Amino acid sequence: MFFFNISQFNRIALLAIVLGIASESSALELTREMFQGRDFKASKGHAQFAVHEFKLDAPMVNALNFGISKLIKAHETVFSPRKVGRNFNVRFRIFEKFEDYQAYSRLRYKKTVEKSILGYFSPGAREIVTWKQQPHLKWRLVPTLLHESCHAIMDEMYGQLPFWMIEGSADWFGEAPAWLLKSNGLRNDQHMRWIRLDEMRRKGQLPRLLPYLLTKEYEDWNEMFKGNIGQGYDVGWSVFDFFIKADPKGQAMRFLGGVINDPKVQRARGRNGQMELEFARAIDRLWQGGINLLEKGWHTWISMRAVESRKALQKFQQDQRSKQRKR
Fold first, then answer.
1. In this structure, are 39 and 121 located in the same domain?
2. Does residue 72 surpass a pLDDT of 80?
3. The whole model's pTM is what?
4. What is the pLDDT of residues 79-106, one digit of tens each?
5. What is the SS3 string spanning 75-132?
6. Same-domain status, 151 and 164
7. pLDDT tens digits, residue range 232-267?
8. Alpha-helix runs per DSSP H in the chain
9. Which one of 28, 206, 266, 326 has the minimum C-beta count within 10 Å?
10. Pairwise CA distance, residues 141 & 56, whole Å
11. For the domain that residue 121 is a member of, what is the CATH number?
């Protein structure tokens, strides 16, 4: 956890001015309240907001509160008997300008962000930091905030989880709500993910499941996927989807919750790489046929989902052409 006292704050604020860390186009005012997390305003729900020139409207506030409430219930269902605390909240810091998002991240967390990093969750400060997003990705803002909310929920419930599950579950929970899928952008994005994964499967490019489950940081994904870290997210999302949806009776979902709550897995927290190892061992020990049979089932699931996605995209394209002809 990173702490700032008043003298540290003054030095950092002065350094920002002298070095010009905030660009000329950025009017970000760095206040003590921001660094101490005292500028968040509550809403009628779990969400709290600190906005910087960003126009936060009631529909977005309502959507996030609704989404967080649903996500909490979903997490508590999958990972029963774990629950969030009674006073749990999710804090969003949203910037209008990318330059302000960039400057704050650099000063507050010594973190370099590019536009490809849509947002992030800081466990130490318990805040989600993001910005308005580029014009063609505005539809991504709410899903991004819900993705990061999943990190906040998981951090509240566990504090630590296997690396692949942290990102895979957040991708799945954050994009799963049916009300979000009214957006064609998000729905089509999911369809394309299944198609990409199926192409990898056909070409033999999917990673073996055991080495993937043992990854413990983004650098491992960078090496495994030859620089394309996004494939690491896709794989984790699909593995989590397999556990949650492949078995209509919910046995696989309960199995996943049981594994993550396994005493050996939980005792491995805080030991670098050991939680991932104990998680993989538990799956190999408890899943009928072990990890190798699980991997075959996962591949079959990807193939089935890709067939559905190709049909859905084809229908979407036909509908779009039909609408254009009627204009």
1. yes
2. yes
3. 0.77
4. 888 899 999 999 999 999 999 999 999 9
5. HHHHCCCCCCCCCCCEEEEEECCHHHHHHHHHHHHCCCCCCCCCEEEECCCCEEEEEC
6. no
7. 999 999 999 999 999 888 899 899 988 988 889 988
8. 6-19, 32-36, 58-78, 98-109, 141-157, 163-175, 184-202, 209-213, 218-224, 230-245, 251-260, 263-267, 274-286, 290-326
9. 326
10. 12
11. 3.40.30.160
94 with 197, same domain: the answer is no
Strand bridging mode 119-122 / 90-95: unpaired
What's the rounded Cα separation, in Å, for the pair 80 and 10? 45
Same domain, yes or no, for 72 and 186? no
Among the candidates 99, 133, 159, a domain finishes at 159
DSSP-assigned letter for residue 207: P
Q: Could you tell me which residues come within 8 angstroms of residue 269 by beta carbon, excluding any fewer than 6 positions away?
A: 158, 159, 160, 275
| 92 shares its domain with 208 | no
Q: At what angle do helices 6-19 and 98-109 cross, to 10 degrees?
A: 130
Cα separations (Å) of 94 from 8, 106, 140, 167, 244? 24, 15, 14, 21, 31
Which of 57, 65, 54 minimizes the C-alpha distance to 27? 54
Same domain? 133 vs 184:
no
One domain for residues 136 and 165:
no
Residues 145 and 172 in one domain: no
Residue 126: give the domain boundaries.
Answer: 1-159
How is residue 138 annotated by DSSP? Answer: G
Q: Cis omega before residue 81 (within 30°)?
A: yes
- Residue 205 has φ and ψ, to the nearest 5°, of -100, -5
Residues above pLDDT 70, as percent of the chain:
88
Structure tokens at 267: 């005792």
Give me the number of domains the chain comprises.
Answer: 2
pLDDT above 70 (res 131): yes
Q: Is the C-alpha dihedral spanning 249, 250, 255, 256 positive or negative?
A: positive
